[in-house]
Amino acid sequence: MKEVNLFPYETFGFRLEHKDDGKVCWFSCQEHLDKYIDRHKLKPKEIKLDYKNGKPNRTRKTHKRNLEQKSQPKSNRSSSPVRKRGTRMDSTRNTSSNDKTSGRKRKGMGKK
Questions:
Q1: Which of 50, 47, 52 shows the shortest CA–CA distance to 13?
Q2: What share of the chain in percent tops pLDDT 70?
Q3: Which of 2, 35, 37, 69 is the most exposed place for a label (fewest CB within 10 A)?
Q4: Which residue(s) pair with 48 in the sheet?
């Protein structure tokens, strides 16, 4: 009988096998495995998990999204003195001065 290597890739120590169709996936860390299980809404009875070391181990790796959430200040105000530009590109306040600079006259706005 031929021995089957469950972990053909050295850096991928987490293996997931779908019981229904035999599809096999390898992962480099527990977090990626968890994301895959959540994304595909897999239940424990539908999959078989294997670990290179024989037991599940948690890595210290965290997702970038989690690090950004932890490092943000509590308030929405920025600590830097620089003002950021607003979301509106065109101002509606100075429409008549905008027309004068462009050389066009607006109807109904001239002298009588």
A1: 52
A2: 46
A3: 2
A4: 17
How far apart, in Å, do the first and last CA atoms of the chain sit? 103
SS3 call for 51 = strand
Q: Is the pLDDT of residue 23 over 70?
A: yes
Tens digit of pLDDT for each residue in 43-98?
999 999 999 987 765 555 555 555 555 555 555 665 666 666 666 666 566 555 55
Structure tokens that stand for 43 in this block = 């239940």
Tokens coding 101: 């600079």
Cβ(57)–Cβ(30) below 8 Å: yes
Dump the DSSP string for 89-109.
SS-STTHHHHHHHHT---TT-
